[in-house]
Amino acid sequence: METTKIKAVTIEPIDVALDEPFTISLGVQHSIKNVLITVLLENGVVGFGEAAPFESINGENQATVLAALNSYRDFLIGKDAADVVRISRHMKSAFWAQVTARCAVEMALLDAFTKSLGLPLYKYFGGMENRIETDFTIDMLTPSAARKNAGILTQQGYNILKVKVGKNIKEDVQRIMAVLEGAPDVQFTMDANQGFTPSNAVHFLEELERRDIRPVLFEQPVLKTDLDGMKFVKDHTCVPIAADESVFTSADAINIVRKNCADVINIKIMKSGLIEALDIAAIARGANIGLMMGSMLETRLALSCSVHLAAGLGGFSHIDLDPHIDPEREPFTGGPEFKDPYYRLSDKVPGIGIRKK
Question: Degrees (nearest 5) of the Cα angle 333, 335, 341?
C-alpha cells in the first residue's frame, strides 16, 4: 500500500505585480514576491504551501526563504506528511528565524495529508464554521481616494473596513473621516503597524473621540516590543486594542496575557506558522482574549489556508483576509468560494482545495 511519505519536493518563486502599491506605516510594496513549495507523496497526492515574507515585519524575503527551503529539501524526502508537528518542531529548531518558510512546509504537508484522508482542512482543524466574513483594508490613501474606495467597497457588500494609520495624526484623522463620508454606516478598525508612540496613540484616539468617531478595534498602536506602552494605550481608552506584530510565538502570547496589554491577538500564519498558531489560539482563549485572523501579502493559496484555520477553530471576532490580487493574475484557482465579503467552505473538497493554473 502506498503511503503518505514524501516522494519529491519542488520549490519555486511566486512573483505577482500588484495593481497598486500597498502602503503601511512600515513601508511600501509594489509586488508580491513569495515562494511555493510542492510536495508529492508516495500515494500520488500533491500538496501546496506558500511562504509570504514581509521583510519589515518578519525579517524574511524571497531569497532567504528560497535558501532555507532548498537547504531543507533533502530532510523532507522520505518523511511522513502525517508527522507534520514533529517536522515543524525540527524545522523550528534548525531555522528558528525563517517562520514563513516553516509555514509553507506545514501548509504543504497538511494540504497533502488531508487530501489523502479525503478531508477538508477546516474539518481537520475542528470544523466549527463553514462561512466567515472578512473586512477589506484601505491603506494610506489620500482622503479623496479613501472616500471613493470606501463607497465602492460598501456597495460590494463589505460591512467592516480596516484603515491603515500611524504616520501622521492629522492625515490619519482626515483619512478616517473620508472613509466615513464615503461609507457612513460602515464599522471600521484601525491598524497603526507600530507607527505611534504611546502618548501619540492616545492623542489620536482623543482626536477621533472629539469628532464622535469610535473604531471597533485599534491594532498594534505602538512598537512591538513596547508592551508597557501598549498597556498605557489600553488603560486610556475604551477602544479594544489588538496585538499583531507583538505576537509571533506562543511565548509572546503568554507575555500579552501577563501584561494585560491587549484585548485581542491577531494571528497570522506567516508570523507564527500553522502549528504555533494553534498554541497561540489556545492561550488567547484560555485568557479570555479575543481572536483575530490576519494575513500578509498572500496569494489565494495562503489566504485559503488561513480561511480554513479560522473557520475550523471558530470564534474569531475579527477576520482580515481580503484578497490582494486580481483573479486574472492569480497563479492559483480553487479554494473556498469567495463572494464579497464572505468565504464559504465545502465539505466535499479535500485539503485546501487549491490548484495551480
Answer: 105
Domain with CATH 3.20.20.120 in the chain: 123-356
Contacts of 97 (CB under 8 A, 6+ apart): 59, 60
Local structure of residue 5 (DSSP, 8 states): B
Question: Given this model, what pLDDT does residue 23 score?
Answer: 59
Nearest CA to 299 out of 310, 309, 291, 307 is that of 307
pLDDT at 22: 64
The closest of 26, 224, 60 to 139, measured between CA atoms, is: 26
Distance CA 139, CA 205 (A): 18
**193 near 320, Cβ under 8 Å?**
no
Q: CA 347 from chain center: how many Å?
A: 23
Give the residue ranges of DSSP H helices in the chain.
55-58, 62-76, 84-94, 99-117, 121-124, 143-155, 169-182, 198-210, 227-235, 250-259, 269-272, 274-286, 300-313
* pLDDT of 179: 98
Q: How far apart are CA 121 and CA 312, in angstroms?
A: 8
pLDDT of the residue at 240 = 98
CA distance 4 to 42: 6
- Look up the CATH superfamily of 6-118: Enolase-like, N-terminal domain (3.30.390.10)
Task: Please report the pLDDT score of residue 1 as a whole number.
Answer: 44
Per-residue pLDDT, 30: 64
What is the predicted pLDDT for the residue at 58?
82
Q: Closest by alpha carbon to 214, among 227, 222, 202, 205?
A: 205
Predicted local confidence at residue 27, as pLDDT: 60
Whole-angstrom Cα distance, residue 332 to residue 228?
43
CATH number at 123-356: 3.20.20.120
Which strands sit side by side in the sheet containing 27-41, from one edge to the other?
6-24, 27-41, 46-51
**Within the chain, which residues score under 70 in pLDDT?**
1, 20-30
Domain limits, CATH 3.30.390.10, in the chain: 6-118
Give residue 325's pLDDT.
83
pLDDT value of position 87: 97
